Fold:
Amino acid sequence: MAAHSPEKLNEDVLRPLVRTSWRFYLTGGILASIVLAALAAFIYQVYTGIGVSGLDRPVFWGFYITNFVFWIGISHAGTLISAILRLTDARWRRPVTRCAEAITVFALLIGGMFPIIHLGRPYLFFWLFPYPSERGIWPNFHSPLLWDAFAISTYLTGSSIFLYLPTIPDFALVRDKAQGWRKKFYGFLSLGWTGTPKQWHRLEMAMRIMAVVILPVAVSVHTIVSWDFAMAPVPMWHSTVFGPYFVAGAIFSGIAALIIAMAILRKAFHLEEYLTPFHFDKLGKLLLMMSLVWAYFIIAERLTVWYGNESPEMAVYWSTQQGRFTHLFWFMVICNLAVPFLILSIKQFRNTITGPVIASTTVVIGMWIERFLIIVPPLERKYLPYSWGTYRPSWVEITITAGTFAAMALLYMIFSKLVPIISVWEMKLGWQQEGEVPRAVASQAPLPQLAPRADLPAAGN
Amino acid sequence: MARQWGMVVDLDRCTGCEACVVACHAENNIATVGEDQAARGRAMHWMRVERYWEGNFPNVRVTYRPVFCQQCGDAPCESVCPTYASYHNPEGLNAQIYNRCIGTRYCGNACPYNVRFFNFYNPVWDKPLNLQLNPDVSVRSVGIMEKCTFCIQRIKVAEFRAQAEKRPLKDEEFNPACVQSCPPKAMVFGDLDDPTSEVSRLAQSNRSTRLLEEVGTLPNVIYLRSVS
Structure:
């Protein structure tokens, strides 16, 4: 396509790596101070005892576990969506995958911290891992928390590789263009990439394998997170629907996070040419579909509970439908269903970028509330009415929660300053395939034949 | 010899005096958390007496139910603990290994009876209460779970004594603090696997029920209550 210029793409995508405006430092400073406040709150909690949170008996889990589930859910933005789009060879994925995969890695890092933050004795978290101990003690493999530890570390490893692999040619591109410390830095990161057909072939093979491998890992991770709840005999936790319900919710919130991230990147780095309304339209449709899937799951969950009419479950059910959590519940439904449905089902709204961004923002808020409503109301109304309780978050929990949102934004900002946020070589390859190679052949053509062309990083362009 | 320690609580005898609660606190070094913390739902009573009112004034009937760890045969708290802090000991007790607990509080969520307690802060005893701590029971620090142990320290002492005197242990020899202190003798403790023990005789009563039996936890605490 004549309109696309590889030189302009290089210029547009690599500009943020070398030029930084005062706005970046200002935003970074604000975010960093929120993160520091959260860190201080955590240190205070460790020093004083977890009593500084709002937790009590019987609500032993609150904001921290909500954040844990929420962030692990957000992490499904990247790897899962990107892997599906790669496997189905959706052409519009090319400018989207990198920003999506980065969300996964950072959301996982943040989400993975929460099981440690919430511990009564956080300094002993490593007891969850089966390391050789002089006392011969082994962790309990029956515990869903242990499954969590394995699932999340597997997913983090996998998605880091998944993010890193397709970045290698882009690191090489930056290395070839950069001077000074950047040349060394990107030279190290590009692992000696020269763009030979053999290297392209290996990269292509590795990406195909990773895309297939990461899908079941991603699905299993959020299923296992849901089993933290579903395995315990707590009314309205102990449910078979939780696995798929959590995975669907994770993809739902993940797409929303991706749309927001893309909109910010587009504005901040002037990537209007690459992240177009077309992409927002596509992702908007996906978000709309997931919104309906989410609604289906919540109806499936609640209708069966209501119809079954078991008294312990009904106590929980009514506390969300006609009790303390009613307003929160309906607010969640508005955020997760009403707003996205109204905006995204109408083409005129979906085609604007503002529309999907508003819908995504409400979805992210709504999904956080959804996690909260899954965790807290059942614990408050657990069997014997004599020991029912209530939960109110403390300032420590709220500060740490705010800190994680800031940390996510900060990590993402730093990432976007160090790594080309759009996959340059994939964009170029796409243009080549569409412009010069017939469509049917393009999807089958092995990369090495296409690779050593003038506008690919290997040639130094 | 394998035993299955168990308890029978006769609800028709219980007067709700809460002597068991006090005895339990004294025996097991349970921290008193103070008014503010108790109001926030952080009071630690391994033993609590639940009160229920039936009927309308003036025809009110009050019933009491002492609730404590049911020492479940199939305990939800045990399987969920990632570090084996909550485990099933060979005498059928739900043991809690304080040193091993990292404070995930998962056991507390999984427990249908809400009888597991968490140390939200380091325990403090006002003087001179700090001088009356039971030397046989470890004091628990911040961040770990605790719960009724059936006074395992007393069980161990009795077992060691019987062993030293080379004779079988009889369950009438000793009692947990709550049973010992119960004025109407509403509680009986003993070996449920021994068909001759009083506890297993009472467990056969046609008044016997188990709390939240439908959850499938197989509790080893049996409540006796006449059905009117």
About this structure: The two ends of chain A are 19 Å apart (CA to CA). DSSP finds 19 helices and no strands in chain A. The first helix of chain A runs from residue 6 to 18. Chain A touches chain B at residues 48-51, 55-61, 115, 118-121, 124-125, 127-128, 137-140, 142-146, 149, 228, 231-234, 379, 382-384, 386-387, 389-390 (CB under 8 Å).
